[in-house]
């Protein structure tokens, strides 16, 4: 997080074996199918240890983790530890065919990694197909034992809020249908808080999550957007929240009555229980940045209850107090939240840049393939710099990198779009060539310890939409963001090169841009992709190949003995 010098010392101590107070945290994850009842219906879902959501992993900064995953489901599975740097443990990152092959049914794999230089709220989820719709859980990293502790008064208690989506139909079947037709993934039937839709939905009175508080106490809410395809506005009636962390990085305290959170992101927020004792709804609705005529969305509301001790129980005649929620398309409110977070302390944002990249990304079209029998001419696609990412099928990219296997990927991902155009202007849809994308498995080669600046330019091809982009293996600094086409002379005036927010997932403004920077000091293969699962499956991704450093401590080690084979 922000205490860079302290964490660097911790990393050196841990690597040299001086990790006093550190522990080995062990878990066993059994992935299997279970039957749950939601929205008046029984449904078979894939889950971990029979729980939906899955178990919470709790560790302290400096700990080592060993999670033994046993696949008893009928599907191939991998688990991604979202936001963990995986320094010198890239084989444990989890994305299918990027850093590993799937754990096939009946097989197992133990993920081993350290949590060094990270504190706060992260999460874990499946990284194959759309299984993360139900295969996910929280990963909480508390300050190192005997260390500095929180940079804010210790809260009385904590509560984890996992925001998700629910489909009545089988999600794997829905994905197969979308791929076969070349169309979009169906919208969800409900949203959930900790796996429960809340009592505004049918048959859901018993499926409403409850948080009990005492007046005058302060609580830490760990809020995670685990949804496949939806960003959220989150509010608690008659309460303000103080944001103190985002994506396991401490922030300058930011007071707000609404939180905007994209898939993959996490927010740590302090709740001061200072309202009159009563029952209050905490509610989440979709933030839908694209017009519904172009991109339909789930317009329902999920709720949980915040109940003060000794307050009378709620009833149909006296329901919990409902917050006033933003409009679904309230982009100014979303942007105000996303753009006003800053790091708690000055950080190590690179000032001298070795690699400049301009990435235009968004939706597009591609000719139907032979495995799309219901496709009519062209299929929906997505791309970065006009390259729609194709996942390998025979070996992981990391293994190909480590063993110098040729033919798995090429090293020619372009630094800029091949053709420059008016990216954010909807009139680009009048030029058919802008809609067409090329398929490829391409990486950008980076030297170890080089510094990178990426301009992420959202396009209006087919539809302008806010896209959350997640980078594996790194945090990055968000130095600026805005709307329209990126114009360097104007944008640099907005650059925050002192204490920009650190993220692993950024929601790039609808019809706009963001500038991020990072230092490529973590060797391996690391994917950057849209965390709208429907868009990842369409190819909105690219990957970095980061070279080894000069020492064994900066060189990718061999894969572990139980590394899954394709």
What this model shows, in words?
With about 575 residues, this protein is mostly beta strands. About 10% of the residues lie in helices and about 40% in strands. The radius of gyration is 23 Å and the shape is globular. The two termini are about 35 Å apart. The N terminus is likely disordered.
- Strand order across the biggest sheet? 10-9-12-17-14-15
Mean pLDDT rating: 94
Q: In whole angstroms, how far apart are the ends?
A: 36 Å
Largest sheet: 6 strands, mixed
Instruction: Look at the helices and sheets and give the structural class.
Output: mainly beta
The radius of gyration computed from the alpha-carbon positions, rounded to a whole number of angstroms, is: 23 Å
Low-confidence stretches: 1-19
Helix content: under 10%
- Using the alpha-carbon principal axes, give the shape: globular
| Count of distinct strands | 32
Number of helices: 6
Strand content: 35-45%
Itemize the secondary structure elements and their pairings.
Elements: H1 4-15, E1 24-38, E2 41-48, E3 57-60, E4 64-71, E5 79-82, E6 108-114, E7 120-126, E8 136-142, E9 157-166, H2 171-181, E10 190-193, E11 210-213, E12 218-225, E13 231-236, E14 241-246, E15 249-256, E16 259-261, E17 266-272, E18 279-287, E19 302-308, H3 331-339, E20 355-367, E21 378-384, E22 387-389, H4 397-403, E23 438-440, E24 443-446, E25 450-458, E26 467-471, E27 476-483, H5 488-491, E28 501-503, E29 505-508, E30 512-520, E31 524-530, H6 533-536, E32 541-546
Parallel strand pairs: 1-4, 3-8, 9-12, 11-19, 20-25, 22-23, 24-32
Antiparallel strand pairs: 1-2, 4-6, 5-7, 7-8, 9-10, 12-17, 13-16, 13-18, 14-15, 14-17, 18-19, 20-21, 25-30, 26-29, 26-31, 27-28, 27-30, 31-32
């Amino acid at each position: 997080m922000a205490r860079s010098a302290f964490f660097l010392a911790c990393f050196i101590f841990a690597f040299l074996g001086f990790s006093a107070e550190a522990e080995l945290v062990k878990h066993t994850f059994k992935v299997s199918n279970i039957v749950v009842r939601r929205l008046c219906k029984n449904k078979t879902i894939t889950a971990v240890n029979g729980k939906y959501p899955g178990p919470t992993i709790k560790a302290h900064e400096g700990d080592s983790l060993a999670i033994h995953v046993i696949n008893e489901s009928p599907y191939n599975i991998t688990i991604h530890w979202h936001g963990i740097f995986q320094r010198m443990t890239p084989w444990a990152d989890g994305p299918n065919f990027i850093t590993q092959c799937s754990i096939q049914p009946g097989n197992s794999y133990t993920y081993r990694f350290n949590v060094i230089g990270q504190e706060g709220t992260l999460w874990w989820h499946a990284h194959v197909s759309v299984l993360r719709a139900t295969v996910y859980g929280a990963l909480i990293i508390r300050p190192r034992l005997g260390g500095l502790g929180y940079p804010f008064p210790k809260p009385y208690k904590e509560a984890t809020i996992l925001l998700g989506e629910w489909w009545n139909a089988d999600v794997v079947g829905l994905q197969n249908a979308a791929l076969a037709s070349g169309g979009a993934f169906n919208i969800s039937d409900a949203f959930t808080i900790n796996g429960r839709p809340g009592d505004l939905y049918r048959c859901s009175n018993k499926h409403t999550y409850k948080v009990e508080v005492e007046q005058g106490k302060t609580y830490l809410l760990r809020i995670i957007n685990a949804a496949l395809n939806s960003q959220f506005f989150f509010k608690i009636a008659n309460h303000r929240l103080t944001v103190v962390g985002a994506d396991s990085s401490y922030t300058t305290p930011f007071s707000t009555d609404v939180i905007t959170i994209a898939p993959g992101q996490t927010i740590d927020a302090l709740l001061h229980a200072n309202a009159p004792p009563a029952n209050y709804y905490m509610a989440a609705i979709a933030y839908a940045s694209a017009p519904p005529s172009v991109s339909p969305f789930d317009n329902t509301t999920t709720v949980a209850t915040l109940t003060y001790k000794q307050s009378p129980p709620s009833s149909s005649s006296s329901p919990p107090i409902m917050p006033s929620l933003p409009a679904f398309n309230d982009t100014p409110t979303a942007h105000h939240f996303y753009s006003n977070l800053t790091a708690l302390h000055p950080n190590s944002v690179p000032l001298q840049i070795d690699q400049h990249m301009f990435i235009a990304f968004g939706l597009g079209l591609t000719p139907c393939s032979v495995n799309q029998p219901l496709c009519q001419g062209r299929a929906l696609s997505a791309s970065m710099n006009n390259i729609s990412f194709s996942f390998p099928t025979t070996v992981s990219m990391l293994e190909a990198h480590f063993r110098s296997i040729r033919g798995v990927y090429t090293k020619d991902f372009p630094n800029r779009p091949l053709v420059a155009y008016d990216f954010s202007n909807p009139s680009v849809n009048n030029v058919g060539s802008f809609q067409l994308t090329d398929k490829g498995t391409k990486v950008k080669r980076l030297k170890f310890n080089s510094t990178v600046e990426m301009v992420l330019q959202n396009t209006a091809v087919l539809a302008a939409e806010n896209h959350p982009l997640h980078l594996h293996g790194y945090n990055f600094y968000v130095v600026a963001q805005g709307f329209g086409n990126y114009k360097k002379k104007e944008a640099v005036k907005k650059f925050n090169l002192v204490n920009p927010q650190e993220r692993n997932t950024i929601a790039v403004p609808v019809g706009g841009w963001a500038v991020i920077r990072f230092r490529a000091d973590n060797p391996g293969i690391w994917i950057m992709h849209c965390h709208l699962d429907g868009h990842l499956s369409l190819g909105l991704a690219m990957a970095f190949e980061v070279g080894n450093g000069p020492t064994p401590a900066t060189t990718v080690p061999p894969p572990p003995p139980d590394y899954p084979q394709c």
